[in-house]
Amino acid sequence: MIVVRYTGGLGNQMFEYAMSFVLAERFPKEKIYADLSRYDLTREHNGFELEKYFEIHISRISYITLRKIAPIHYFMQKMKLGTILRKCPLSKIEKINAYLEKRNRQVGIIEDLNSTNYNENVFELNMDSVTLWHYKGNWINPLYWRGMEKKVIQEFRFKTQLLDEIDRDIIQKIDQCESIAVHIRKGDYKNRYAFDLCDDKYYSSAVELIENQLKGLSIKYFIFSDEDVVGTLWNNENYTKISHLDNCGIDLYMMSRCKHMIIANSTFSYWAAMLNKNAGKIVVAPKYVYREKAILRKLPIPHGWKVIDNVF
Q1: Higher pLDDT, 291 or 293
Q2: Looking at residue 236, what DSSP letter applies?
Q3: Is residue 232's pLDDT more than 70?
Q4: What one-character DSSP code corresponds to residue 54?
Q5: Which end of the chain is more exposed for a tag (fewer CB within 10 A), N or C?
Q6: C-alpha torsion 261→265→266→269, nearest 10
Q7: Strands 132-136 and 239-242
Q8: Which among 25, 15, 3, 90 has a CA at the least distance from the CA of 50?
């Protein structure tokens, strides 16, 4: 049995699902299940949303499996004290679960390397020695599905019935012009040393680059952001602001419909660019995704995307 742990918002969940898909392809005789126990502890953005926006089905772990990989969750739920979990310190619960899981010889743990790096040993599993393999990580690197890119992307079929009349009108405008999606993520990134890496200078450089590439064309910007866009860069009538705070998957889909993209250091807009079907798309991306003290972590950029150094 293989279990993939899900954490984070929609963008991270898509990377984790991509890993699940690859594991199913590589180990066709094994059942692949989802560990959603993290969402019992914290809401994390809007919670687990993959099935809300995409035509996919997630097989959740059983109660018995929960006992092996997240014992605290198991016993709290067995005693009907599940609501108390959210009131407990997240880091302490996670540490206790991890400690108890590692002591269980029936469980093998596979982890990624600093989220964005590539762990070349993740598919080397000995099914004879361990009955349950638990994948714990974000897997933010397309190298994990190298050679399966088309299959992975085809898995994310958006539920278009979620679009309302206003959304459909905007998509029609996106289709009829040289549309550029711009993702500006603030919210949980704002004033955070680790993630607040895309400032006005980055977006100014990205706009200059993409406009030089599209000289002579009638460009229109579609700004996707979790807060009001301010500043001289967007102080014109040539942009449309779009935001579905409680239905972020709609934003992701509408971004993917634009012809070109300026993304943030975010797995959310990264996936919008991955799902973009425009053969001639220009994608501008930041070089770095986050930092740990003096260490800068690079965003794994697919071939053909334009990269801007966002830590000047």
Answers
A1: 291
A2: S
A3: no
A4: B
A5: C
A6: 0
A7: unpaired
A8: 15
